[in-house]
Design goal:
CATH architecture of the largest domain: 3-Layer(aba) Sandwich
Order of helices and strands: HEHEHEHEEHEHEHEHEEHHHEEEEE
Structural class: alpha/beta
Strand order of the largest sheet: 7-6-8-9-10-14-15
Low-confidence stretches: 1-54
Strand content: 15-25%
Radius of gyration: 20 Å
Length: about 400
Amino acid sequence: MKKKLLSLVLAGAMTAAVVTGCGNSASGSQTSDGADSQTEESAADSQTSDGASSGDTFKIGGIGPLTGSAAVYGVAAMNGSQIAVDEINAAGGINGMTVELNFQDDELDAEKSVNAYNVLKDWGAQVIDGSVTSACSIAVSDKTHEDQMFQLTPSGSAVDCVQYDNAFRICFSDPNQGIASAQYISENKLASKIAVIYDSSDVYSSGIYEKFAQEAASQSLEIVYAGAFTADSNKDFSVQLQKAKDAGAELVFLPIYYTEASLILTQAADMGLDVQFFGCDGLDGILDVENFDVSLAEGVMLLTPFAADATDALTVKFVEAYQEKYGETPNQFAADGYDTIYTIKAAAEKAGITAGMSTEEICAALTAAMPEITVDGLTGEGITWDASGEPSKAPKAVVIKDGAYAAM
């Protein structure tokens, strides 16, 4: 098991990174405007364009929730991955190999995620892009470690997602998000009395809350109320909201997913609770919740590594390509998926991966290459990794303004 090194480049970089927004460069990430069309229905067959050689192939298996309550995450990660695959193939592939992407649905269920992995293994996957969510990524990592297949999760943020040497991630870990959130709230003087509503049955939510609570104490933030819910009690939040109100909370921290957050915002409005709401990357997707009044999310802040309104060349090009291909604005998970594919490309080129190598040989070569590469991506400029699997990059925050995410 890896030694857990929490890459806390956050404290000093936090304010500067947030003020400047996405300072990404286009120089290290994308090269072409691949244009093949993909839909959810064709995810299992998602593939290629004509720029790469037609002989050898490099098979990437993707896993995430394409249906169900977290489908916004999985579909976005799949779509962002596909855009990167299209661009790479149009530019000649990876070491001359055509890239094939096969993305499987796990429905936010760990057992189904393992089943999806087995499908991809039978298909001939050589690396894994996923799973998109933490519990599913952890379950799959047990299998990839056993099989010695390289795994790079775009957004699995729980500590144990990268517990094995063959597993890396694009996103920040849960502890990093909890610590960074407390630092940001304190440094920007958003509030001094904080209430927290979190999911104690979820490793993502409880992991962020634990580190947030620890860091809040050192940042002179008072947690006046902490209310938990579980997967079996995630519809009615009136008790938690009333207790937060009675405790005098000035800000409610929501280290949870967007579905529950939309219910909390709706119920808070119904009871006249007027406070600031602040979340992490799990809230990304709240603007796409069916039948949710997005005006209720106005002013909500969240830590996220990507803002679609950033003006750097790479973001502008990606957003235009995504909107043209899928008819909507990409979220952070789409950017995570895009950076996942380009990171695999960078590591494969550094390692000199060829089609004739076994899965185990590819895994060993990519694992060794990861700490030696630097990627300028959508979710950070100059991203590096250490052997623990953790990325090092500066965090950013966005605010929901006029029904859209705006860089802060």
